[in-house]
UniProtKB/TrEMBL annotation, chain A:
InterPro entries noted in UniProt: VWF_A, vWFA_dom_sf
Record bears the keyword Transmembrane helix: yes
Keyword vocabulary terms for this entry: Membrane, Transmembrane, Transmembrane helix
Span of domain VWFA: 85-284
Name of this chain's protein: MxaC protein
Transmembrane parts of this sequence: 6-26, 47-68, 303-321
Domain of life: Bacteria
Pfam families, alphabetized: VWA_2
UniProtKB/TrEMBL annotation, chain B:
Entry superkingdom: Bacteria
Residues in DUF58 domain copies: 69-268
The protein's name in its UniProt record: DUF58 domain-containing protein
TM spans (from-to): none
Source organism: Methylohalomonas lacus
Classification of source organism: Bacteria, Pseudomonadati, Pseudomonadota, Gammaproteobacteria, Methylohalomonadales
Amino acid sequence: MTLNLGVSYPWVLLLLPLVALPWLQMPLDSRDHSCVAALPADSLSRALQIGLAVAGSAAILATLLGIADLHRVEHSIPRVGTGAHLVLLLDRSKSMDNTFAGRRADGDEESKAEAARRLLSEFMQKREHDLFGVAAFSTTPLYVLPLTDRRQATQAAIDTLATPGLAYTNVGDGLSLALSYYRDLPMTGSRAIVLVSDGAATIDFRTQEKLRQYFPELGVRLYWVFLRTSGDRGPFDEPENEQEDTPEAMPERHLHKFFQTLGVPYSAYEAENPQALEQAILQIARLENEPLVIQEKVPRVNLAHLCYALALGALLLLLSAKLMEVRAWQA
Amino acid sequence: MASNNPAWPRYSSNRHFDNNYASVEPEEFHYRIRQPASGLRPGFHRSIQIGSGDQFREYGSLLRQPDPRRLDLRASLRDPLQQLQVRIYNQRSTLTVCLLADLTASMSFGGTGGKLRLLTEIAASIALSAFRTGDAFAFYAADTILRQELLIPPTRRSGLPWQIAGQLYHAAPAGNHARGMLAAVQRVPARTSLIFLVSDFHWPNDLLHEVLGRLSGHIVVPLVSWSAHEYVPAATFGLVAIRDLESGQRRLLLARPGLRARLTKAQHGRRSQLHRTFVSHGHEPVFFEGHYDPRQLTEYFLARG
C-alpha cells in the first residue's frame, strides 16, 4: 500500500529546518567543564543524549506537520476480491406469478417470482464483493439498475420481482440489454449474466448473430436458471419425434442449444421447486468465486491529531529530562 | 572583561582593593633543593660558589684566596711546596624560583572558588616563600601564547605575593590549548632554577613531554591543580550537560552510582598516568584537589631532602 500523504498548509513546511535545532543545542543548560574528552565513555548517557535530540526533533517535526494539517489523501487501492460482475436478468412475464405447480400463488405456496426474489436476495447478501446489476425483460427489455455495489439498491431491484408480472417473454432483447451493462466497463473480474426465467422464446436470427458476437467479445458467462412449471417442457427435454424438434414447438430446448453455441462458458440449471432453485444458485455461487481485481476508494484520513499526540509524547520525554536535570557540576 | 590586546593589562590596578583579592592570604612553606644552587649572591641554599660559607670546599694557596684569617697551619706544613694553605669554603647561595602557570580556559573551571583560586593561592604562597627565603621570584603565565602582561621577571621585591594574587585573580583564563607554555619555557632563566609548573595538565602527551624536556636542566616541581570535582560531579543522580571550556565539546551525562565509580577510576587512572610521566622525567609531582595546603609542599621538600 502506498502512503499518499498531503498537507493543507505547505508553507508551514518552510520551518522544517528547525528540526536540526536539537542537534545543535541540548535542551539542558550546559555546565563548564575542563576535560570533557578525558571522561570515560558512557553508552547510557550517549544514548540519552541522542534520544533527547531525537525527541526534540520529533517534537518540532510533529508540531509542524500538525500545524500543516497532515493527512492521507483520498485514493483508491486495487483489491483482489472473490467477486464478479453479475447481471441478474429477470423474467417478468405473467407466468412468473404462478407457483411451480402452475397454479396461481396463494398463501401456502409461493410463486416462482417470489421464490426467485427470496433466493436471489440471499445470494446477493452472501456475496459481499460482487457488483450486481439488474435487468428485466418481458415483451421488451427493462433497464432496472446498472452494475453497482450498493446492496440496498440491488435489493430494491430484486424486490420488484414481487410486483405482478407483465406480458410475454422476449429473451433475446433482454440478453442484449444485459450485455450492454458491460460495455465500456474495464475488465476487472469475471462477468456473468444470470438469466432467471420460466419459459423461453425463439430469438430471431439477427439478434442471435449479435449475441454470438458480443458474448465472447465482452467475455460474459451465462447461467440460465430455468424455473420449470410441472408439466411444461424444459431445456433438457428430448423431442418425441423429428417433427416436434422445432424452435417453435420446443423453444427451451432450442434456446439451450443456441446458448451452447455462444462460445462462452454456459450452464443451465433446471429448477422445478424452490429447493432446486436454491441448489442452482449455490452452484453459480461456487463457480463465480474467482479472484477479481477491484479499485477500492479509501477516504482522506486526517493525521494532524496523531502528530500532536506524538509531539506531546516527545515533549513529555523532554520535560522529564528537564526535571531530572542537575544544575551544577560542583556542589 | 578580558581584552585580547596585550598592551592592556587584563587586570586593573584598583582591583587590588577588591574583597576577592583580600581574601587570598599567602601562606609560607619551606623549600630546599638537593643539588647546589647556582646563584651568585649569598643566600639560603647550598652552592658550589666559593665564599664565606660554612661548608669546607678545599685547600688553596693564600695567593689564590688572600684571606689570612682562614690560614691553616697544619695544611701549610704538610704542603711539599711549602706554600701557605688557606681553607676555602662554599658560600650558601640564592636560587631563582620560577612559577609557570597554565592559564588556558580549563583553569577557569569552578568559577571563583575553583582552579583559578587554587592557582592564585599557590602563586602567592610561592612568591611569599621565595621572598622569605631570600630568593628571586619570577612569574610566567601562558595560554595559547605567553601572557606578556602577567610576566614578572626574577625579582626580590616585597609585596609581590599580593600583587600576583591581585593580578591573577582577575586574569581571565582563555585559549583552547596550552602551547604558549613552550614560549614561557624559553623565558625561564638559563641557570638552574626551581620551577613550579602549575596546571591541570589536561594537555596532550606530546606537549607535556616537550615542556618537561625543555626544562630538563631545572629543578621542576609539577603542581597538578585540580578542582575537587575535576572528574566526578557533586550530584549523585541526575542529568547533567557539560561543555568543554577549551574544545567546546558538549556531552550529556546521567550521573548515577555506577558512572560515579567509573569517573573516580578515570581520575585515579589519569593521576597515575601523570605521575608516571613526571617521574620518567625525574620530577615528583604534587597533586592538589580542590584546596591548597602549604604544609603539603613543606613535607614534599623535607622528604626529598
